[in-house]
Amino acid sequence: MFHGMTEAMRNRMRHLEALDAEQRRLGLPAVERLCAITHDTGRFLAILAAAAPKGAVLEVGTSGGYSGLWLALACAQRGQKLTTFELRDFKVKLARETFEAAGVAPLIDIVVGDAKDSLPKYKDVAFCFLDAPDPDYIDC
Fold it and tell me: Is 64's pLDDT higher than 90?
C-alpha cells in the first residue's frame, strides 16, 4: 500500500507537517490550527483502515487533510473512497487544496458541516477515525 504514495503526497505531507509545527510554535489554540496526527500514527491508521472489513471508511475531523492522505492510501487499496467530515470552512479549504495538490481528490468525499447531522445515514461502517474535539466523541 505504501508503494502507492506519490511524491506529490509526500510533498504535501511535509508542507502540512511544517505548517502544523509553526502553528504550534505560535501557540495557536487547537480550534485555529491543524492539530495533525504524527507520521507514524498516519501509517498505523492506513494499515488499520486497509485491513478493515467491507464497508465505508470515514473520518470525523478533516482538518487540513493530513490524516486523509493516509486514509486515501488505504481506500485506494480497498478500491473505494474516504468520506471525511469537517465543520470549519478554513479547514475545508485547506483540505481541498491538500487533496488536489496530492492528487487524491477523486478518492475523497468531503462533507461540510457537523458530522453528527450526517453520521446516522452511514450504516455499514468498516472503519472510522474519530478526530473531533473530545466533547463530541459520545455524540458521534
Answer: yes
